[in-house]
């Protein structure tokens, strides 16, 4: 959905460098989700954030990966000391609230395709 | 935890009907989503089911049986542009995240 903006669309990093992926949710959305997708595979949940809070990071690798969603500005997924296995498409999705009352579909951004060389 | 299964690949003919199944096991169910994803693009929302039964939306319908942990996506009057990956996703109760299956790659042939 064009409303969720991710940048960059493509990112090439050498092994050992840092990758910073940005996601601006749709206007009015305060919930952000990050997913990773390897070629020919489904989306794997990484982390769920609300403004200034990490709600669920159960899918996030314990080392090298971190995420934030500050009060102002986009959500950032940061990968330190990248390795070739980090090469994947990283999708961000946003929703206005959780599914506690009624449903809220998640709108996805176009993704950032990270290539580690 | 959650476990979601769907067929890896399916092939169908233009103009035909195809049914893509999804079975799931979850501790706390709060809705099932179907998304369509074309190669290299973002997933786009197709349907949502939280109660048992059939939800129809144009050429696409989605069915849910909570007691069986089963859903299907039905695509009618297939068009070539329907060739894509179809992702089944289950939302957990009291959690905002959805867990996705690995997707079913549908190929529509003339």
Q: Could you explain the architecture of this structure?
A:
The complex is a heterodimer of chains A (117) and B (110). With 117 residues, chain A is mainly beta. Chain A has strands spanning 5-7, 10-13, 19-24, 31-37, 43-50, 53-56, 65-68, 75-79, 88-95, 107-108, 112-116. In chain A, the strands form 2 sheets. In chain A, strands 2, 4, 5, 6, 9, 10 and 11 form a 7-stranded mixed sheet that branches. In chain A, strands 1-3-8-7 form a 4-stranded antiparallel sheet, with no helix packed on it. In chain A, strand 4 (31-37) and strand 5 (43-50) form a beta hairpin. The termini of chain A are far apart. Chain B has no helices and 11 strands. Chain B starts with a strand and ends with a strand. In chain B, strands 2, 4, 5, 9, 10 and 11 form a 6-stranded mixed sheet that branches. A 5-stranded antiparallel sheet of chain B has the order 1-3-8-7-6, with no helix packed on it. The chains are: A mainly beta (117), B mainly beta (110). Chain A binds chain B through residues 1, 31, 33, 35, 41-45, 48, 55-56, 59, 91, 95, 98-100, 103, 105-111, and chain B through 30-31, 33, 35, 41-45, 48, 50, 87, 89, 91, 94-103.
Draw up the topology in text:
The complex is a heterodimer of chains A (117) and B (110).
Chain A: E1 5-7, E2 10-13, E3 19-24, E4 31-37, E5 43-50, E6 53-56, E7 65-68, E8 75-79, E9 88-95, E10 107-108, E11 112-116
Parallel strand pairs in A: 2-11
Antiparallel strand pairs in A: 1-3, 3-8, 4-5, 4-9, 5-6, 7-8, 9-10, 9-11
Chain B: E1 2-5, E2 9-13, E3 18-26, E4 29-37, E5 44-49, E6 53-57, E7 60-65, E8 70-75, E9 84-92, E10 98-100, E11 104-109
Quick overview:
By secondary structure, chain A is mostly beta strands. In chain A, 0% of the residues lie in helices and 48% in strands.
């Amino acid at each position: 959905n064009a409303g969720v903006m991710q940048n960059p669309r493509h990112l090439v990093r050498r092994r050992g460098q840092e990758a910073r992926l940005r996601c601006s949710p749709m206007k009015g959305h305060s919930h952000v989700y990050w997913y990773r997708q390897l070629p020919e595979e489904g989306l794997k949940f990484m982390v769920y954030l609300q403004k200034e809070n990490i709600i669920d990071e159960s899918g996030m690798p314990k080392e090298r990966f971190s995420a934030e969603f500050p009060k102002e500005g986009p959500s950032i997924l940061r990968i330190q000391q990248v390795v070739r296995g980090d090469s994947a498409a990283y999708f961000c999705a946003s929703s206005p609230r959780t599914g506690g009352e009624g449903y809220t579909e998640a709108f996805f951004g176009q993704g950032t395709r990270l290539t580690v060389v | 935890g959650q476990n979601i299964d769907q067929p890896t690949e399916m092939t169908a003919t233009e103009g035909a009907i195809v049914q893509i199944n999804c079975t799931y096991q979850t501790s706390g169910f709060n809705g099932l989503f179907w998304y369509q994803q074309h190669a290299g693009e973002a997933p786009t929302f197709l349907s949502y089911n939280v109660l048992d039964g059939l939800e129809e939306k144009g050429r696409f319908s989605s069915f849910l049986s909570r007691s069986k942990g089963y859903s299907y996506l039905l695509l009618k009057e297939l068009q070539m542009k329907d060739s894509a990956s179809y992702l089944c996703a289950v939302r957990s109760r009291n959690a905002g995240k959805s867990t996705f299956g690995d997707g079913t790659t549908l190929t529509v042939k003339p």
